[in-house]
Structures are given as C-alpha cells and as structure tokens.
What does this fold into?
Amino acid sequence: MAETGSRNDPYSAFNFLVEIDSVIVAGFSEVGGLDTTTDPIEYRNGNEDITVRKLPGLRKYANITLKRGYTDSKELWQWRKAVIEGKTRRASGSIVLLNEAREEALRWNFREGWPTKWTGPAMNAKNNEVAIESLEIAVEHIELQE
It folds into this structure.
C-alpha cells in the first residue's frame, strides 16, 4: 500500500499584510514590485580571447506598488504630500504573506522607503467598481527574511 506523503501546496497570493514602520497600515488589494536586479558589467582584457567577462555591478530594487480601495483614511496621501513639500520621511516596512490559517509564512522587508508616486481613483459613473488608490514606494533594499 502506498504511503501518503505530506503535500507542499503553494501559498495563495491574496492572503497578505502590509506593515510600514511595524504598524499594519491597511488592507491592500494588490502589492507589486518585489523585484531586485544586478546589472552586469562587461569587461575584457586586451590580451584575452574574444570572450567578454561579466562582473556583478550595481544592485537595483524596483519600486513597491500598493493598491487599495479608497477610504476616508488620508495617511498615504499625507506621506506623499510631505515629499512634495520637501519633507521626505523614509520608512521601513514589510510585505507579509500568510498561510491558510492566517499565520505568517513569508516576510519581505524593505528599507529607506518613501512615496514617489500617488494615484487617486479613476471615476466612471458607468462602472460598478471600487475606487482604488495607488502608492508607489521607492526603496533602497528588499530582502526575504530567512
């Protein structure tokens, strides 16, 4: 008789939290931009054959985009407004993926974040959709907590 093994199902992408400065900010409907790249530097010595070496260059981190249904909470707009007024406040935070029991499964931490773009809701009287606001946060570091 075959033995039943444990399943290792992937996590659902809809079950997550966003924390900024260790405070759960709000329920967001979408998070994007958990992305990091390292630019290659091409290099070749004159006395080598025609093969180019590729060395690791600058690390880059994409902007994190948060989207949520628009509410009467103005804290995201106020954070962006401070940048517009030249009073940039940087913050650290986390994107926390939860398992089916709503327990923390994975955590991506970011540092030195500040809002680079805020987008208000698109209005259309013909649609039956929730008004969505979007905030783009420029970050200097993203890491998956181990």
Observations:
- The beta strands are 16-20, 23-24, 30-32, 36-43, 53-61, 64-69, 91-98, 104-119, 132-138, 141-144.
- The first helix runs from residue 75 to 84.
